[in-house]
Design brief:
Two copies of one chain form a homodimer. By secondary structure, the first copy, chain A, is α/β, with parallel strands linked by helices. Chain A contains nine helices and twelve strands. In chain A, the strands form three sheets. Chain A has a six-stranded mixed β-sheet, with helices on both faces. Chain A has a four-stranded antiparallel β-sheet with strand order 10-11-9-12. A two-stranded antiparallel sheet of chain A has the order 4-5. In chain A, β10 and β11 (215-224) form a beta hairpin. The first copy, chain A, is elongated.
Chain lengths: 253, 253
Amino acid sequence: MVDPTRIWTAALIVIGDEILSGRTQDRNVSQIAVWLSVQGIRLREVRVVPDDQNAIIEAVNTLRARNDYLFTTGGIGPTHDDITVDAIAAALGVDVEIHEGARAILSDYYKARGGLTEARLRMARVPAGADLIENYMSGAPGIRHGNILIMAGVPSITAGMLDSLTGQLEGGLPLQSTTIGCWVAESEIADLLAATERAYAGCQIGSYPFFREGRTGANFVIRSTDANALNACTADLSAALERGGWAVTAGGI
Amino acid sequence: MVDPTRIWTAALIVIGDEILSGRTQDRNVSQIAVWLSVQGIRLREVRVVPDDQNAIIEAVNTLRARNDYLFTTGGIGPTHDDITVDAIAAALGVDVEIHEGARAILSDYYKARGGLTEARLRMARVPAGADLIENYMSGAPGIRHGNILIMAGVPSITAGMLDSLTGQLEGGLPLQSTTIGCWVAESEIADLLAATERAYAGCQIGSYPFFREGRTGANFVIRSTDANALNACTADLSAALERGGWAVTAGGI
């Protein structure tokens, strides 16, 4: 039986100079967030850090202590700028070792691709005591060590790793959400939103304004782990908006 | 005269449950990163935090102390979930006050839009002692308080605020970069990359693998504040790759 009051949380560390330089648009935050919510786990905080051992260690040790799970993306390839495994091992105070299962996977994967070179064998290195996370897409596996889940930086590879983790992590009740939209300036209905949120314990209402086609509108996202409260809150907010003269679009605009 | 050894840094706090839920794909990290690099400032770290006062305070006080600049995005609208100003004032230990310049801007902006209501006046609230950042796109201005720059969450509005800040922040030499690409598995040339980087002080080489059209390739981004070193390092790496039998595409694949 799931304890409805227990909130499971995760943090994510995105490791990579390419995100901080603006060269690469991150795609992992949103895909991991969405995947986590289906597992009944909330993404509570994200940090983007450079390829710098001290920066990674600080983030790992702060975030793993105060969340149920800590995910990392990036920095597990074969090149000199891939320092995630070493930094996490240092954060944990454990050695780096070759994982024999990973060596076997890589040896098999590279059999028809020029063989398992020294550089490629780097991708079998793990913090001592780790397990592997299956990688459907390419050779190098992800790594699990306690509550830390070490994923690839390439989003399509991370997607496969998340798929192989589906159902494997303990979570709580999934956070459900509904969205409604109106062509209204959010400043016109700020009091209404606040009052509606106060009236429904356990529901949060987020207000997301936009400007399109020269007009001002907003989508309202209602979130709760309690489907009954969610539906009642959504219905109440929709009715109040309609009474105010704003047509409501279910699902958002 | 710019001191070539002084590195100016910035941090960014992205504030918003909508990013952590995966509902909204962040666009501000990359646009702020790219804008900063033109100003000669490096984005050193990013945190994404929920709409939670304690989470914001912790991030603000840690990051403003160890960076030249701290940017925030999100949470400066008129609704109940917009708590950025209050949280930053609490972090700084100052009161929240109505900025008379902001009141005048909003009063003017809303003259033909139903007037300056109580909810809209919330957008004139600033941490005491703040200046404004011009907003070309909509009414509510951004806010500057010491080394903290408080920007909108909507990317197009943030873009306008960055434009009005262009040339206003002191920075150092801009970090320049070149990109070259090859159809090569990065694991095949890991040693070459590491050796080339070691040979050019002040240059960093990032390796970004990809999978396209069923083939494996990688782009290599060389970064330096020294244009001569950058060009020499790029030429050397390109020549070494060509000698190894891999055709190099300038600008990346």
